[in-house]
Design goal:
By secondary structure, the chain is of the alpha/beta class. The chain is 47% helix and 13% strand.
Length: 222
Amino acid sequence: IHRFDGAYDFIKKKYDRDSIVIENAAEEAFFKETEERRFCLGKRYCVCVANYLEIKNQIFSMRAFFHSPEMKDFALIYIGSEKNSYYEKMCLEKKKLEQKYGKRDVQFFTGVPRKDIYDYVRGACICLLSSISEVYPVSLIESMAAGVPFIAADAGIARYLPGGVIVYSEREMSYWMSQLAQNKGCRDFLGKSGREYARNHCNIEGKIDQLEKIIEGLESDG
């Protein structure tokens, strides 16, 4: 799914063959233009779309959010499929952080209809990814398609995607939250870079066309 993914190197080393790469894609709804980046909340916000799991490591980004004084007027929205033990762990961590840093607008959503997720992502100022392990994070492609800058942990091939910054600690994520919160020009630049890449490389129609051409080539070779 990406030429810098480990599977690509494995196939090359084991079978001495180059793989045909078809990258992940975002649904067309994410590419819809959004003039006003406020959805439902009446304030600017960061969003993280991922199931509530240890491997997704959302507590990492929540701690970074609390550590940043510049984020006190922002909201932080987490969207996962269902409540579970990690969800409960996040709720407890939020209480601990509020005791130390004061109240912050952090919300945990479950069961959000897909059509609303489009709007939450398109309306965000920053998208967050703090996973311990990934391959090719679809949530980053979706934020890029929406023109929303991302801050991501160095997981999978995230470092090779334009449109955001890669961080290696809670402190670094907090720093970049502060920088992007205060600098609309920087947010716009990153968002535009990611959106252009996604439009050219990560749209579903383009992937279908690419796959059809590959199949046609195989048939002609056969």
